[in-house]
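Handout, section 4.2: multi-component inputs.
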Amino acid sequence: MGFFSKDIKSLDDLFVHTLRDIYYAEQQITRALPQMIDKATNPALKQGFEKHLRETEGHIQRLEEVFELHGVKAKGVDCPAIDGIIEEADDVAGDIDDKQVMDAALVAAAQAVEHYEITRYGTLIAWANELGRSDCASLLQKNLDEEKATDKKLTEMAESRVNLQAAE
Ligand SMILES: [Fe+2]
Ligand SMILES: [Fe+2]
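Output:
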């Protein structure tokens, strides 16, 4: 279903479509993170990815609760945006031999993923509130808070050791 699909008629339809988009994206992220854990060398980065994999599994569970609260079936729709971000990260990482440069590339790829999630959750929270679903909004907020905290940690890593090591 395309973004301007004729199946989307109301804000409620758009909310459900976008919920399904992020549901699919979170599932793709749980598939991509184990490979990123394998490729990471810096122990803090590896542990950070492991922690975020567990959090991402929690994001999927919270989304399932949101679907249930809203009375719609939990299912994903193709999200070419997240597929593209993950595919590009794979392409770039495939060409890197230096471990520290690889870590810098992994941080950059992970931040692109987090920013995608942050924009989706921000939108979904605004629409949930507009639709009178503060119950859904507060669950979505928990996911958003974890994405933002992850993004912040990645920025700290990029600014400190990961980038410094790549420049050596
Ligand atoms: Fe997530
Ligand atoms: Fe995330």
